[in-house]
Design brief:
Blueprint: H1 14-19, E1 25-29, H2 36-49, E2 53-57, H3 61-72, E3 78-83, H4 92-105, E4 109-113, H5 116-120, H6 124-137, E5 142-146, H7 154-166, E6 171-173, H8 185-195, E7 200-204, H9 210-219, E8 223-226
Helix pairs in contact: 2-3, 4-6, 6-7, 7-8
Length: 230
Amino acid sequence: MFWFAKKVSNVKSAEDILKDLNACIDYTFVMPTVTNKQLEDACNTAYKQKYRSISVNALHVAYVRSYLQEKFGEPPIKIIANIAFPLGESTAEVKAYEAKRAMLDGADEIQMVLSISQAKSGAYDAIKNEIHRVVRMVKKCKVGVILETCYFNREEIAKLAKICLKCKVDSMITSTGYGTNGATEEDIALLSKIVEGRCDIVASGGIAVKADAVHCIRSGATRIATSREI
């Protein structure tokens, strides 16, 4: 079930959004039970549907890269590695190492879950440090930060978003899909207002059908992360 309750108007029509939708979808396969066969099927689907990327846990990056190269030559879609997923409760040093390992395994982009406990404690210098360390460690990769917005109020989300901008991240992702809530209209709109186009806003969590994705983009998202073939 998706968490949007009301319609948001935008100058861009639903038809225009749907026309380019697949090119901004990050096809996610981050469940702990995922098998190699499921990863292969996901790669095939992402290629067939011309999705922007396939998003997996860091452990599976090398396998996905190898499969894509063997079947399609130079991988036609990007590979996103999720690190410290889904809790974010690793030290900055561990996150930086995991990000580097994923980069060496073939990831094009790193998405790290920030430390929710430190953020809730107001330890914003620690949050800035862990993001900055990952960004510095993987200069060849784009870096995104998963905020898990369901655990934060508007003021906290705004503070975290501004830290991400200072650290020059390439994207902010609303949710892991494992929290108490997913992408919401209010959170996406808030991030869009703060970001002002300086990085991508990835709507993630509870996006089950095309109408959900359209609503996200009309609210300010620039990309969609979903485990469903919408």
